[in-house]
Design a protein that fits this description.
single chain, 149 residues, alpha+beta, Arc Repressor Mutant, subunit A, Dna Ligase, domain 1, 3-stranded mixed beta sheet, two-stranded antiparallel ribbon, globular, metal-binding, WH-like_DNA-bd_sf
Length: 149
């Protein structure tokens, strides 16, 4: 089993991709994303799932929406793509390092970033009465592998 597949299994409470709480289409999307080394766009997922009988884009989008709500998948707004969540615990702060050359994505754990925790971020809106619910930070740059070439 790949490292990402193991992480998905852990984040699903130790369940495998056949977890009964996931629909067939959700399981298919998780399986494809967990085998990828990087983010995938919805239409790339659709192409990868055509041989499994998934033909409509809305089928993929619905599965992605539900997986995101369950915390198993993250949408990267800046590149309009999706990745498997690499955390095994709930988190409100999502931080991603995205390589602009090869599109490799690393998810940074909230507690690995000093002074950037949910309590700090959620209070940013207090002066104007804004109630924060979650945040996603996307940092673009060049990964170590691309810097070597």
């Amino acid at each position: 089993m790949s490292q990402q597949a193991e992480q998905v299994k852990t984040s699903m409470g130790g369940c495998d991709h056949n977890d009964e709480s996931l629909t067939r289409n959700e399981k298919l999307v998780v399986d494809v994303l967990s085998r990828e080394d990087g983010p995938m766009k919805a239409y790339e997922l659709l192409a990868a799932l055509k041989d499994k009988g998934v033909k409509a884009p809305m089928t993929v989008y619905r599965a992605l929406d539900r997986l995101e709500a369950k915390g198993l998948v993250h949408k990267l707004d800046g590149i309009n793509a999706f990745v498997i969540c690499n955390h095994d615990e709930p988190h409100r702060v999502q931080i991603f390092l995205i390589c602009t050359n090869c599109s490799h994505v690393e998810e940074v754990r909230e507690h690995d970033v000093a002074n950037l925790d949910w309590n700090t971020i959620s209070k940013l809106g207090d002066p104007i009465g804004f109630k924060a619910e979650a945040t996603r930070i996307e940092v673009r740059g060049t990964c170590a592998k691309c810097q070597e070439t």
